[in-house]
Structure formats: C-alpha cells, structure tokens
C-alpha cells in the first residue's frame, strides 16, 4: 500500500518554491496516505554549515512545516540525524550504486561548480543518502519539485539493482514482495518509488531572472519570497519582480517564450489551487500593473498566516524538540526493521 516520504534541507529560510513545489503538496497528501517528512540535516552538511546556525535552521524548518499544516501527531516528522539507520543504509547503497550513475548527477555538477576536486565526498554521494531516506521506509511515492527528478530516478535504479543482485537471497529469506519489473514478475525487497511532481508550480523561478530557479542560495533576497516574509516584503518583491512589457495572454500557449510571465502565472495558480488556464481565463489581457497587486494580495492572504504561526511555534523551542523526539522514535521503529532485513539480505552478521 502507498507510503509517502519526502525531505527538505534545513539550510536557511524556506521559500515559495519549496512551499508550492513540495510542502503545500505534502500537506494535501496527509488526508489520503501515511506520510513521513524529514528535515535532512545530514544532507545539509554536505556543504559547510555554521553549527549553531544549523541547529537553529533545523528548528526553523520544523516550525515552518508545522505552521504550513504538517500534522506531526497523525504522521511522522523528524530530523534525519536522529535516526542512525539513514547513515547506515546509505553506506550499503554506496556499495550498490555505481560511480557512473553518480557522475551523471547534474545537481552535483551545479553545486560543486568548477572546483570539483574541493567538493566534499558527501556532496558526491548525496543521492545515495537520499535513496536511503526513501528506501528505509520503503516509500512508494515521493512528492518533490522538478529539480529532484534525477535523484528519484537514481533511487529507482538503486532499488532495482539491489532487488536483482540479492534476488535469490531475498526469496530464500521470504522477504520479497511480488512486483512487476517491465514484463517480468520478481520478488523484490525495495519498491520502485514513483516521484510525485505535479501542479502548476513544480519549478518556481527567481523573481529577478526567469531563467534561474528560485533558491535559498541566490544572493539577492528580492529573487525569492521567504515563508517568513511579512506582508510588506511580499508585496514589494512582487512589485519589483521582473516582467516583460506585454499584457497577460488569455491562453497558456501565449506564455511560451515569456519565462517571467509564465512564472508569475504559475505562482498565482499554485497559491490559488487553480490551473494556469483558469488563471489566464480570469486575468488574461490585464497588464502586469494590474495583475501584480492581485498576485500580491493572494500571496499575502495565503502566506502571512503561515509566517505568524511559525513565529508562535518558534517561541517554544523545547516543544519543537519534543515533536522531533517523538517523530524520531516512530521513524526509528520502521527504519530499524528495514535495516535488520537489509543486514540479513546482504549477509552482515547481526
Ligand atoms: P531542498 O531542501 O532543496 O528542497 C525541498 C523541496 O522543495 C523543492 N523545491 C522547489 N520546487 C519548486 N520550485 C523551486 N524553485 C524549488 N526549490 C526547491 C525541492 O524539489 C524539494 O522537493 N535533496 C532534497 C532533500 C531530500 C529529499 C530526500 C527529498 C533529501 N532526501 C528524500 C525527497 C526524498 C533537497 O535538497 O530539497
């Protein structure tokens, strides 16, 4: 049966891209499926993090998730480093994944930049840890933004190779679940996880440059809307957002070649839970001087309550820590069972 897992790095402020591409959808999935959500602090340290700031960011991200509507009582919310099986399974996966697979990862190339010799080894094996996160819970579906697609393909490759390499052992131990791989039925241990990438805002772009994705690391704060921004900041950033001089088209086809316009319409659609078609049938023909204030009002209406709630939650850090504690204990139960199975499958004496 379906099980959802997803993660977010506790590195600074969450922004509108994180919210529309991932978190808002995590919240929605909670009504239909068991969900496990994780602040991935072990992923964060693949790049340098100031220790005291990392502690703060982990609590902040947790507060943001709770404020956005993650229900840590019904579902599981925790920070990755508290469940040691993530690191343990990642090691086994390091021994399953191939150098060639990791060499193809575009995020590593982007993050390492020109000075690849000086990137951390953790940054290179980042996707293996991510596969471990997902497979530890044998998650079937992973809601993410477009930028994580390649990592999820790697996760499937890892699961498939593990199932093949250890297929007879898995069958011997009776740990397999029948699954369809192409034409053939095999008994696999890990599911072939499906990405859930959908909606009008799978790739929210910078407000200053329609060719760059909105990101925490952009030096310009005007390029993104942070979940902690107040109404004035939100309105100002939308007012200053880069656009072209034309009015909005009345059909989606008219957004082709207009990345900034496309981005603002996508953001509106994501916030309004509507399609881009619906947004354009209402706002098509309006100049940006008209559309931007409407977008700012909508963004403030949807985001300001989250920022308020986040501030309220952050006022009691001990309560945040208790939430993470309880989540880690429940995650560790599942993770412990998987890791025990994996050890038997691989032949690691327990
Ligand atoms: P991270 O922390 O960079 O981002 C968290 C989520 O936000 C999405 N996202 C975006 N979506 C749309 N537009 C954008 N501009 C934008 N920027 C970010 C990301 O796609 C992501 O869904 N490697 C992951 C964290 C991770 C993970 C996992 C995710 C670790 N283990 C296991 C899923 C399952 C990352 O760095 O996300």
Q: What do these coordinates show?
A:
By secondary structure, the chain is mainly alpha-helical. The protein has two domains: about 220 residues, HUPs (Rossmann fold); about 90 residues, Orthogonal Bundle (Tyrosyl-Transfer RNA Synthetase). Helices cover about 55% and strands about 10% of the residues. The strands form three sheets. The chain has a three-stranded parallel beta sheet. Strands 4-7 form a two-stranded parallel ribbon. Strands 5-6 form a two-stranded antiparallel ribbon. α10 packs antiparallel against α13 and α11 packs across α13. It starts with a strand and ends with a helix. The relative contact order is 0.15. The mean pLDDT is about 95.
Write the layout of secondary structure elements.
Elements: E1 4-8, H1 16-29, E2 35-39, H2 41-44, H3 51-68, E3 76-79, H4 85-94, H5 99-103, H6 106-112, H7 121-136, E4 141-143, H8 149-165, H9 167-172, E5 177-181, E6 184-188, E7 194-196, H10 231-239, H11 259-272, H12 276-283, H13 288-314, H14 317-346
Parallel strand pairs: 1-2, 2-3, 4-7
Antiparallel strand pairs: 5-6
Helix pairs in contact: 3-13, 4-7, 4-14, 7-8, 10-13, 11-12, 11-13
The protein binds tryptophanyl-5'AMP.
Residues 5-9, 17-18, 21-22, 40, 43, 130, 133-134, 142, 144-145, 147-148, 151, 202-204, 213-214 line the site of tryptophanyl-5'AMP.
Keywords: Aminoacyl-tRNA synthetase, ATP-binding, Cytoplasm, Ligase, Nucleotide-binding, Protein biosynthesis
Pfam families: tRNA-synt_1b (PF00579)
Catalytic activity: tRNA(Trp) + L-tryptophan + ATP = L-tryptophyl-tRNA(Trp) + AMP + diphosphate + H(+)
């Amino acid at each position: 049966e379906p099980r959802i897992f997803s993660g977010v790095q506790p590195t600074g402020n969450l922004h509108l891209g994180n919210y529309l591409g991932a978190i808002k959808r995590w919240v929605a999935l909670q009504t239909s499926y068991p969900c496990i959500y994780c602040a991935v602090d072990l992923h964060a340290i693949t790049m340098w993090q100031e220790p005291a700031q990392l502690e703060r960011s982990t609590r902040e991200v947790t507060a943001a998730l709770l404020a956005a509507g993650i229900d840590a009582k019904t579902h599981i919310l925790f920070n990755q480093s508290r469940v040691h099986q993530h690191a343990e399974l990642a090691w086994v996966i390091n021994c399953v994944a191939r150098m060639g697979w990791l060499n193809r990862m575009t995020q590593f190339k982007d993050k390492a930049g020109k000075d690849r010799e000086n990137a951390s080894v953790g940054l290179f094996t980042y996707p293996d840890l991510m596969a471990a996160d997902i497979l530890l819970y044998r998650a079937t579906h992973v809601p993410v933004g477009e930028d994580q697609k390649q990592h999820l393909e790697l996760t499937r490759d890892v699961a498939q190779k593990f199932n093949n390499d250890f297929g007879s052992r898995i069958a011997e131990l009776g740990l397999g679940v029948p699954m369809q791989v192409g034409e053939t039925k095999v008994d696999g241990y890990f599911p072939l996880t499906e990405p859930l990438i959908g909606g009008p805002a799978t790739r929210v772009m910078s407000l200053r440059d329609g060719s760059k994705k909105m990101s925490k690391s952009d030096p310009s704060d005007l390029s993104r809307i942070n979940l902690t921004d107040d109404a004035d900041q939100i309105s100002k950033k939308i007012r200053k957002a880069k656009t072209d001089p034309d009015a909005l088209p009345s059909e989606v086809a008219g957004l082709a070649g207009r990345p900034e316009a496309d981005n603002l319409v996508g953001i509106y659609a994501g916030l309004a839970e509507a399609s881009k078609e619906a947004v354009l049938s209402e706002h098509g023909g309006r100049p940006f001087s008209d559309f931007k204030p409407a977008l700012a009002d909508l963004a403030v209406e949807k985001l300001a309550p989250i920022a308020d709630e986040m501030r309220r939650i952050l006022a009691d850090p001990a309560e945040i820590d208790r939430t993470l504690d309880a989540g880690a204990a429940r995650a560790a139960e599942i993770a412990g069972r998987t890791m025990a199975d994996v050890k038997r499958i691989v032949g690691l004496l327990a």
